[in-house]
Amino acid sequence: MTPFKTVLGMIIIICLTIILFAFINRGTLCDLKIYPK
């Protein structure tokens, strides 16, 4: 396996992890609000 394919595979795995995390936290991902104390 060439180093390029290894890096490409790692990038794909990272992207899939981020997408999966976004689907799990679908409601809270864009709901980051700063509340005054």
From TrEMBL:
UniProt keyword list: Cell inner membrane, Cell membrane, Membrane, Toxin-antitoxin system, Transmembrane, Transmembrane helix
Membrane topology label: Single-pass membrane protein
Record-linked InterPro entries: Hok/gef_toxin, Hok/gef_toxin_CS
Subcellular location per the Swiss-Prot or TrEMBL entry: Cell inner membrane
Signal sequence extent: none
Spans traversing the lipid bilayer: 6-24
Keyword Cell membrane: yes
Pfam families documented for this protein: HOK_GEF
Family: Belongs to the Hok/Gef family.
Protein name: Hok/Gef family protein
